[in-house]
Amino acid sequence: xxxxxxxxxxxxxxxxxxxxxxxxxxxxxxxxxxxxxxxxxxxxxxxxxxxxxxxxxxxxxxxxxxxxxxxxxxxxxxxxxxxxxxxxxx
Length: 90
Prior knowledge:
- Helices cover about 50% and strands about 0% of the residues.
- The chain has helices spanning about 1-15, 50-65, 75-90.
- Helix 2 crosses helix 3.
């Protein structure tokens, strides 16, 4: 987060614009799954865990509701989780 803030601030200065900051109140940060036992193996094609599918539906609904401009994921599981949430949406 600090690196993003620094980049935005310095870019504004370099472009001759009044320095700005990212409004952290407008960011939504979450873990794909809070409980590790709800996680599925990324190599698994079918995720059959009830808690996991519920969280997948929840994320898919949030994506449809808020239509985020960008989603940043860290790690293989969170990327696959988000990819599947987008797939459910379509």
